[in-house]
Amino acid sequence: VKGNYLKHYAFYDETLRNEMLEEQNILNDMETALKNRQFEVYFQPVYSLSTGKIISAEALVRWVHPEKGMLSPSSFLPIFEHNGFITKLDTYVWETVCKRIQLWKSEGKEVYPISVNVSRVHLYDSNFCSELLSLVQKYDVEPCLLKLEITESAYTENEKQLLYIMSQLQCSGFKILMDDFGSGYSSLNMLKDVPVDVLKIDMRFINGFEESTRAGSILASVVQMARRLKLPVIAEGVETREQAEYLRLIGCESAQGYFFSRPIPLQDFELLLAENKTF
Ligand code: C2E
Ligand code: CA
Ligand code: CA
Ligand code: CA
């Protein structure tokens, strides 16, 4: 028994060591990666369920690593949030989006609002709103074109500081999307007075409603409640036509998910926009 225990211990020790080495590797790589433009912004279109057309998109970051290939956010974001690098990376993503919107305008193309993810780390920075304002001003982008996705759990912390910054953002003209709505421990009651313009319903509500009538009813009630609160809704993680149809039926305005399109590189997104086909 003792021998086994030691073996296990050695095993865990080894994985822990590897994890730490891996984290150290990422730390060493990230500044170089930003300089060498290894971070790419992908776009996942958001569709109107009534017209069937693209109305906006969400910007999602990817790390195209020279040795490890394409890394998805879950493999590096937790580390970046931990060491603060996330604020630099997010700023890079927002700037990339603003530049693109500016380019669309100058080319006389139709301009779509793009939503970006905001790490909670940024919300503790009291200069955040003014920095964001100077960024959009630099590229002559109206604040309402850069929509800010803030995850539900940031609201549940319910700190005055956070709520203050969010209302400051709203007053400056930015639109705030509550991301992952319904995923955490938020109470519906909090929706009474938090600064938010759009609800993004978490994909957990979407997946599996076909198998259970309860899940379907819950989804319908959430959409109905949002409508009563005059909050537009985006459903996330829509993977089938049936899901899209049901969402339309219960009054959900818009949706994104693999059924419509995966997150795609900019060039592909612009092709989709040019076609502007209904789904
Ligand atoms: P999120 O903001 O909730 O983004 C939605 C995630 O669901 C994305 O994963 C997207 O690729 C995935 N997804 C979209 N449609 C479907 C679907 O139909 N089915 C399934 N199963 N998944 C779908 P991704 O790109 O891996 O991003 C994961 C998370 O990383 C994001 O979750 C967001 O919280 C964070 N993230 C991504 N990019 C950024 C960024 O630039 N800055 C910050 N701070 N966070 C980011
Ligand atoms: Ca998001
Ligand atoms: Ca989400
Ligand atoms: Ca999420």
UniProtKB/TrEMBL annotation:
It comes from Anaerosacchariphilus polymeriproducens. Residues 23-277 form the EAL domain. Coiled coil: none annotated. This is Stage 0 sporulation protein A homolog. It comes from the Bacteria. May play the central regulatory role in sporulation. It may be an element of the effector pathway responsible for the activation of sporulation genes in response to nutritional stress. Spo0A may act in concert with spo0H (a sigma factor) to control the expression of some genes that are critical to the sporulation process.
